[in-house]
Write a structure and sequence with these properties.
The structure holds two protein chains of two kinds.
Chain A: E1 4-5, E2 8-9, H1 10-17, E3 30-36, E4 41-51, E5 57-67, H2 70-83, H3 88-92, H4 96-102, H5 111-131, H6 138-171
Helix pairs in contact in A: 1-2, 2-5, 4-5, 5-6
Chain B: E1 4-5, H1 16-22, H2 24-27, H3 38-58, E2 65-68, H4 71-85, E3 92-96, H5 101-112, E4 116-120, H6 130-136, E5 141-145, H7 159-168, E6 172-176, E7 195-199, E8 210-214, H8 240-276, E9 281-283, E10 294-299, H9 304-313, E11 316-317, H10 333-337, H11 342-346, E12 348-352, H12 359-379
Parallel strand pairs in B: 1-11, 3-4, 3-5, 5-6, 6-7
Antiparallel strand pairs in B: 2-8, 7-8, 9-10, 10-12
Classes of the chains: A alpha+beta, B alpha/beta.
Chain lengths: 172, 385
């Protein structure tokens, strides 16, 4: 078993204390926002994408802004590390299990934080493809719809807070 | 690294004077209080002296003090014990929305076996309105339970007024005084509580000892049946060292009560003042009707678990009502009851002070929190409101 500090593996705490790739990216090619403050975690994920000679698109940079618990911050830090240098196809294949493994494990209650992180990356890629008018792969489209559906449900419950959250983010 | 323990509302270290008082009862005077020989009778005497200390502290009678193993047990005994003993008289129980889970869950369990519960709302400060108690009492109401000082937000409830209403309407009144016994004046001749819960480990005594004050004439059934210890209300071999320690801790607390309360209020208010200067912070609970050692602040920009975990790396122990730190992934029921918006509920931080907190600890924690807010603020998508 990995070394632990309280409920968290040591690597989770390392990422949490010294997160990688945090901060808003002004010239991002794609932005994904998932979660909301009502639930306790909200994440903005930014990617910079470069088209290579053979037409393959590769993520050259990634960053995040996260409001949330230790696991949410660590997952954001880890996934932005993982995404860098990957092609869009490869990045979309990053699963929550990989994030969790790479962090040395997360408490069961916190697995959803890693789901949030991989959703944020998928949303950023979706946003990038949509901006470029590209054809969006079927499974990404389905994933986006699922995330949107969740978002709508939360908006019905907590609309007022989500509005405030958007306003506060725009001000930063 | 400097260590600052600021979670006294969760538990406290045992005072060395208490340790000293307990010591002989582990090794030399280990006798069972039910035994007839001298060794047993000495243990019994020590427990009875402890009972006298408690009775004196509450200005009640020695027969009113029932020793238990924990505040959770005392609260379970009060709620379930009174409910069962009075079930022919009525099936209705009143509790407040900010009771400790052991009161809430006890009454919820009673609902499963046919009792009904009314949960009293609280205002934004966490105060119960005595008028709501009055309105909630029905012909079949048997018990009302409202805590004295709230463990999370520190609000002190008007138990005198609530007790008077209950006495007039012939309803038993129970108060969970875990955060106030030995630190505030609690007089059974002045306040109409029929039952009162207090706990040792919140006041520099050992874990494993608590009490339930039961006013004479209160109809109550035991929940632990057996050898008939504690006036038949709590069968179990008596935990003599813990009870002796509990009594010693009460003596010390009461001896230092007035000075310590004043000292803590000074530290508390300085801490609150400093915290309110940080970005996006608001105070939870009542500004003045408040436990002398309780600080509860919400931050709108950063999440509570993150704050607590970072504080830990600086040697500071604190707690949060954030969902992320709970087993249910829901923010604290107390913070929800005072109508806190989700962001502020997730961003809550409780710092509770105690006997070994000094001025320089307050300075240190304020400095550390400033740094932490800066750090988490950089990661946060939000900027100050």
């Amino acid at each position: 078993m990995a070394k632990r500090s309280g409920p968290y593996a040591e690597k989770v705490i390392d990422h949490f204390r010294n997160p990688h790739n945090y901060g808003k990216m002004e010239d991002a090619d794609g932005v994904g926002k998932v979660g909301n403050v009502a639930c306790g975690d909200v994440m903005w994920l930014y990617i910079k994408v470069k088209r290579e000679k053979d037409g393959v698109e590769r993520i050259t940079d990634a960053s995040f802004e996260t409001y949330g618990c230790v696991a949410a911050i660590a997952s954001s830090s880890e996934i932005t590390d993982m995404a860098k240098g990957k092609t869009l196809d490869e990045a979309l294949k990053i699963e929550k299990g990989e994030i969790v493994d790479s962090l040395g494990g997360l408490p069961p209650m916190k697995i959803h934080c890693s789901v949030l992180a991989s959703d944020a990356l998928a949303e950023a890629i979706y946003d990038h493809m949509k901006r470029g008018g590209r054809e969006i792969p079927e499974n990404l489209l389905r994933r986006h719809e699922r995330i949107e559906e969740g978002r709508k449900k939360m908006e019905e419950m907590y609309g007022e807070w989500i509005e405030m959250e958007e306003r506060m983010h725009n001000e930063k | 690294m400097r260590k600052v323990y600021m979670d006294y509302a969760a538990t406290t270290p045992v005072d060395p004077r208490v340790m000293e008082a307990m010591q002989p009862f582990f090794t030399e005077e280990f006798g069972n209080t039910m035994a007839l020989y001298a060794l047993g009778q000495e243990s019994k005497l020590a427990v009875e002296e402890s009972r006298e200390t408690m009775a004196k502290a509450l200005n009640g009678d020695v027969e009113d003090i029932v020793f238990t193993g924990s505040a959770t047990e005392s609260n379970n005994l009060a709620i379930k014990g009174v409910a069962f003993a009075n079930r022919k008289r009525g099936k209705h129980i009143i509790i407040s929305a900010i009771e400790h889970p052991c009161v809430k869950e006890s009454s919820r369990w009673l609902e499963k076996v046919g009792f009904e519960t009314t949960t009293l709302p609280v205002n934004d400060y966490g105060l119960v309105d005595p008028a709501d108690v009055e309105k909630s009492i029905r012909d079949d109401t048997i018990l009302c339970s409202v805590m004295h000082g709230n463990n999370e937000i520190g609000t002190i409830e008007p138990i005198k007024e609530i007790g008077d209403i209950c006495a007039e309407r012939d309803v038993y009144f129970h108060t969970d005084a875990v955060q106030t016994f030995g630190r505030m004046d609690l007089d059974a001749k002045k306040v109409n509580f029929d039952l009162l819960t207090a706990s040792s480990h919140k006041m520099y005594g050992p874990k494993g000892a608590a009490l339930l004050y039961v006013r004479e004439g209160t109809r109550i059934d035991p929940i632990l049946h057996g050898g008939g210890h504690e006036f038949g209300l709590r069968s179990s071999t008596v935990n003599v060292p813990a009870i002796v320690g509990f009594a010693r801790s009460v003596e010390i607390c009461i001896g230092e009560m007035k000075d310590e309360w004043e000292r803590l209020i000074g530290l508390r208010d300085r801490l609150i003042e400093g915290l309110l200067r940080l970005e996006g912070s608001t105070l939870n609970g009542h500004p003045s009707k408040r436990l002398a050692n309780n600080v509860n602040i919400s931050f709108s920009l950063v999440e509570g678990e993150s704050i607590v975990m970072l504080l830990d790396t600086y040697g500071v122990s604190a707690s949060t009502g954030s969902a992320c730190s709970s087993a249910k992934l829901e923010p604290s029921h107390v913070l929800r009851a005072i109508g806190l918006n989700p962001r502020l509920a997730h961003g809550s931080l409780r710092l509770s002070l105690g006997r070994w907190i000094q001025n320089q600890d307050i300075d240190y924690v304020l400095l550390v929190l400033l740094e932490i807010m800066g750090k988490l603020g950089e990661i946060s998508p939000f900027k100050g409101v």
